Amino acid sequence: MNSAILPLVEQIDRVLLGKQQQIKLSLCCLMAGGHLLIEDVPGVGKTTLANSLAHSLGLSYQRVQFTSDMLPADLLGVSIFNQDSHEFTFHKGPVFSQVVLGDEINRASPKTQSALLEAMAEGQVSIDGETYTLPQPFFVIATQNPLEHSGTFELPDSQLDRFLMRVTLGYPSADAEKAMLNQVEQPTIAKVINSEQLSELKQQVNQVTAADAVLDYILRLVNETRSNSHYAHPLSPRASRALLAASKAWAFIEGRDYVLPEDVQAVIPAVCEHRLRGASSPQAQSLSEQLLHSVNPLG
After folding, report:
1. Which of these, 226, 263, 223, lies nearest to 244 by C-alpha position?
2. 3-state helix, strand, coil in the chain (%, to 5)
3. How many other C-beta atoms can be found within 10 angstroms of the C-beta atom of residue 46?
4. What does the alpha-carbon distance between residue 286 and residue 23 come to, in Å, rounded to a whole number?
5. Residue 282's pLDDT is what?
6. What is the dihedral of CA 272, 277, 282, 285, to 10 degrees?
7. CATH 1.10.8.80 spans which residues of the chain?
8. Under a CB-based contact definition with an 8 Å cutoff, are residues 27 and 9 in contact?
9. Using CA atoms, how far apart are residues 270 and 177, in angstroms rounded to an integer?
10. Rounded distance, CA 141 to CA 116, Å?
11. Which residues make Cβ contacts (< 8 Å) with residue 113, sequence separation at least 6?
């Protein structure tokens, strides 16, 4: 593993025991410049993972608890009339942070969910005819409960597609849960890298190379979803770019400056599963695995 990434993984692993793969995928999403969706049942560590990531990176951080009565202004901010200056003054909302944790995003109404769309896609928000640039880096971590839980609203496909990766945590192993129960107190999270170091790491990720053979493999995977009627939601060009970006970041985390087909295979469930199934298709939890089995990496 890359020596710059290893301390981050080891520190978060002390808090979220037995979930090193999910920790690496989350860091992969950050290094690739995307946004992360964490989906699972309550109580398995979604918020813990998000908090640990934010504090380890030493970035400005806001946690937003999404509820059914939340309004877009609660997230973006609001203009308030200043009686002294006789002008409207914009008061920034929690979205103006480098790391934004949207906790239980699918408990909010679709109107509030969509308020994140421009921010995630463009790194800016438009309010009352004015455009405000968000701080960089800008990383959204959203958690959501399964749709069968009461009081949830499914994310529309357009919103799902804005998340570069989606990870699920699952229940811990018996050994990991026993170690958690034996912990006298929660391990503290210290800043491991700063924003300048993070920017340098992301620049190194951009320099990771992918040979034509790897690009052809990605294109074969994407085209398989478009030509096979088994996939109701084919992968878009945005998805193919996301798959390449995540593969480069994974290769970097593994300590290489070039992409292997194994890197593509490692990230494709997190990058493509939520895109393949769509918001209205809760079945097919293994569509990405079926896709991998149907396409030969050697052509």
Report:
1. 263
2. 45, 15, 40
3. 27
4. 21
5. 45
6. -50
7. 207-299
8. yes
9. 24
10. 11
11. 66, 105, 106, 153, 155, 156, 159
Q: CB neighbours of 181 closer than 8 A, spacing ≥ 6? A: none
Q: Nearest Cα to 126, choosing from 77, 171, 186? A: 77
Q: Is the pLDDT of residue 96 over 70?
A: yes
pLDDT at position 255 over 50: yes
**How confident is the model at residue 210, as a pLDDT?**
96
pLDDT for 284 beyond 80: no
Residue ranges, CATH 3.40.50.300, the chain:
1-201
For domain 1-201, the CATH architecture is 3-Layer(aba) Sandwich (3.40)
Which residues have a Cβ under 8 Å from the Cβ of 160 and sit 6 or more positions away? 37, 166, 274, 275, 278, 279
Helix count (H) and strand count (E) of the chain? 12, 9
Span 21-45, average pLDDT: 90
pTM score: 0.88
Count CB atoms within 10 A of the CB of residue 186.
10
Half-sphere exposure of 4 (CA within 13 A, CB side): 19
Per-residue pLDDT of 113-136, as tens digits, reads 878 877 888 888 888 788 889 998
Quote the CA–CA distance of 127 and 76 in Å, as a whole number: 8
Please report the pLDDT score of residue 110 as a whole number.
80
Which residue did the predictor score with more confidence, 267 or 103? 267
Over residues 219-249, the pLDDT tens digits come to 999 999 999 888 888 999 999 999 999 999 9
Phi and psi for 93 in degrees, rounded to 5? -90, -175
CATH architecture of 207-299: Orthogonal Bundle (1.10)
